[in-house]
């Protein structure tokens, strides 16, 4: 009992606490740096179906395809995420018109809401590229009551038409992604076979899934 009340024990506990605090702050800074780099490099698409019925889910994919077809036409010269967002903002009304036309052409009268903002995304796989959970700028499309399953992809650099069945991202998409990311960030999302990379990826997921990003942002 005397030992637990001694100055040495108190000093030991203090050192342990400071060590934990140092490790936590270092991990937080690392995660924020990587997550910030990823968020700064990609512009995502988020389509929400009216419901989970087969018909509404099929409609969701048709709306997605129509929007991506138009985006790919106008975004040929985009070299940064900022370029892609500027184009999306300039063409927001056109995106909405395209979505509405697609909905009507398929025999539905659902309303559609399109917004461009910063949203939370869960971890998603795009072939052999995996983006960790976190806050990302995105074009969000809400069809009807928007109570159905979500569909996510990356509009810039374009990973939306990746062949998921083969698990391969084409070289052009990878090159564009790599050019817009730091070497560390690209390694984390493209090479999770090594144990240290897996740990770093899980660390990023932990911070995102426990709302630590949002708490930090609210305290800024």
Provide a descriptive summary of the structure in words:
The protein is an alpha+beta fold. The protein has one domain (41-218). It contains 9 helices and 6 strands; from the N terminus they run ααβαααβββββαααα. Strands 2-5-1-6 form a 4-stranded mixed beta sheet. A two-stranded antiparallel ribbon has the order 3-4. Residues 213-220 have low confidence and may be disordered.
List the helices and strands and how they pair.
Blueprint (H helix, E strand, L loop, with lengths): L1 H4 L1 H35 L1 E6 L5 H21 L6 H10 L1 H14 L6 E10 L2 E3 L2 E3 L2 E10 L6 E7 L14 H9 L3 H8 L4 H15 L2 H7 L2
Parallel strand pairs: 1-5
Antiparallel strand pairs: 1-6, 2-5, 3-4
Summarize the structure.
The chain has 220 residues and is of the alpha+beta class.
What characteristics describe this protein?
single chain, 220 residues, alpha+beta, four-stranded mixed sheet, two-stranded antiparallel ribbon, 9 helices, 6 strands, elongated, disordered C terminus
What is the averaged pLDDT score?
81
The helix/strand order is: HHEHHHEEEEEHHHH
Principal-axis shape equals elongated
Rg for CA atoms: 22 Å
Fraction of helical residues: 55-70%
* Biggest β-sheet strands, sense, barrel: 4 strands, mixed
Our measurement of the CA-to-CA distance between the termini, rounded to an integer number of angstroms, reads: 44 Å
Strand content: 15-25%
Quaternary structure: single chain
The domain count comes to: 1
Helical stretch count?
9
Number of separate strands: 6
Helix and strand composition category: alpha+beta
Placed side by side, the strands forming the largest sheet appear as 2-5-1-6
**Stretches where pLDDT falls below 50 for ≥5 residues?**
213-220
């Amino acid at each position: 009992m005397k030992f637990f009340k001694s100055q040495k024990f108190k000093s030991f506990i203090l050192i342990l606490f400071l060590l934990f605090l140092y490790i936590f702050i270092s991990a937080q800074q690392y995660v924020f740096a990587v997550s910030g780099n990823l968020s700064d490099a990609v512009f995502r698409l988020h389509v929400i179906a009216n419901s989970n019925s087969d018909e509404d889910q099929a409609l969701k994919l048709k709306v997605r395809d129509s929007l991506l077809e138009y985006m790919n036409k106008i975004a040929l010269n985009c070299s940064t995420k900022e370029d892609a967002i500027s184009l999306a903002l300039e063409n927001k009304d056109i995106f909405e018109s395209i979505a509405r036309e697609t909905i009507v052409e398929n025999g539905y009268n659902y309303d559609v809401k399109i917004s461009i903002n910063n949203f939370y995304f869960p971890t998603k796989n795009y072939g052999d590229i995996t983006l960790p959970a976190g806050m990302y700028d995105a074009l969000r499309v809400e069809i009807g009551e928007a109570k159905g399953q979500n569909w996510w992809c990356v509009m810039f650099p374009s990973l939306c038409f990746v062949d998921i069945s083969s698990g391969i991202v084409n070289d052009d998409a990878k090159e564009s992604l790599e050019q817009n990311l730091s070497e560390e960030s690209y390694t984390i999302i493209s090479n999770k076979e090594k144990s240290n990379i897996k740990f770093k990826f899980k660390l990023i997921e932990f911070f995102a899934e426990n709302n630590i990003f949002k708490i930090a942002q609210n305290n800024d």
